[in-house]
């Protein structure tokens, strides 16, 4: 049996720890001034000392700038949402450090310990994790991943030492001994996961955990090093600026938009009779879906004054108010502005058996933020894939995703603007920004076309609604929503 490694002398450790603590506190001061957050993910075999390491970091750091996370098996409420929902909700705030004793890796490793066959699914889970971390890292989050390495022999010694002391024996469970017995199998899984999820911006760092003092110092020093590298990397990024001219990425999307026939007619009498028919079908379809524990997400985008609000009001009149939420999306708050743009939308993803209506949505990244230069070119170009992945996670969970673009002509929009100017109870709907957006309509049309071409997917297709005639548009929303939900439920 291999002998235990010689520990770092206490006096040497204390001198280094004092310097490290001062440097970590300085890091926290600087973190308040930079536009990113830090995630320190600690993983490793049982007995590697994640708990004691967390306690030491909590002692060294100012607790007002730290949040600690440890994930247990998902609750019923968490299972009622897409898998990554709980991880998005628990991200630390901007300028703060998140310490993860458990993370999105925990359940995959836990399942492998319970079930030998789970190894078959590790590659799929690792791909999901890799995409999630890429999303965060590309958005500016500093991810520091540490695997605390402990050999099987060292693990056995540590467990026996803890068990032999009455004061610490409670720390050793039957599950710990089970993990020790299947150490080689778990180590194989862990190696595979690390290999599949090691990428720029989210690298794995192996740190020997046998000597607790050396381990603690190594993790603290790694945090300092990665923080300094992140500051330099972000300082080199170009600043966001409005483009002088927009060029279509996929001209087919703009052609599709321009080909939409806007001269639809529908009399008030026909609308009245047809509306009741489709309200009834929508009510039955929604009740069936929600009763089957499916969730529904409706996304409404369109020109200013295109009638999104009116369409939403008619649609919700067919649904029990207790079953839905309408989420009006305005400019991001300062906290939201410095978080990943998808963060605020993940928080409002409905649980099973609920319906959420987004009045404007995550598509702001590829529309207003692209046109107005509120984000960098690499950010909005990357967003098409990020949005497709976000919606894929929703639909894989079972969520029915319906997306609407309400399209009005240039002339009809101007007529409605003028009407709002002269109608007292509508005047609040019009502001200087609406007129400014109208002057940039050509640029927005290009952005809309690219959005349609690059995010129209079978699992979450776009419905283009001719909206010059408000009655036709409202009925079209009712019809298409009813049919889409019926198709999803095979009614």
TrEMBL record:
Q: Does the keyword Lipid metabolism apply?
A: no
This protein is called Polyphosphate:AMP phosphotransferase
Pfam families reported for this sequence: PPK2
Q: Which residues form the signal peptide?
A: none
> Could you tell me the keywords of this UniProt record?
Transferase
Q: Which domain of life is it from?
A: Bacteria
Its Gene Ontology biological processes? polyphosphate metabolic process
Gene name in the database record: pap
Q: What range(s) does the Polyphosphate kinase-2-related domain occupy?
A: 9-233, 267-488
Q: Cite the source lineage.
A: Bacteria, Pseudomonadati, Verrucomicrobiota, Opitutia, Opitutales
Please give one Gene Ontology molecular function term for this protein.
polyphosphate:AMP phosphotransferase activity
* Alphabetical list of NCBIfam families matching this protein: poly_P_AMP_trns
**Record's keyword annotation contains Transferase:** yes
